[in-house]
Amino acid sequence: HEVYEDVPFMLLDSVEAIDSERIAALVDHFEQYPSFLVAALLPEDAQALDSAYDRVKWGDGVASSA
Length: 66
What we know:
The protein is α+β, with helices and mostly antiparallel strands and 66 residues long. It has a domain at 3-46. The chain contains 2 helices and 2 strands. The protein has a two-stranded parallel ribbon. The longest helix has 11 residues, at 20-30. The protein is globular. The mean pLDDT is 86.
């Protein structure tokens, strides 16, 4: 099924059990399908991604507006 045609959003989370290189390959693979791909990664895993990807950093001094 081409679910990405109806739901243009994909979230990758809890992938820290996979090594950084495989996470980067997974993101590279899936980025071709949805319009929006969000990957929640540990900082050390995010370093393996190409710098062309947009990043949002969450850390000290940042508060949720929920």
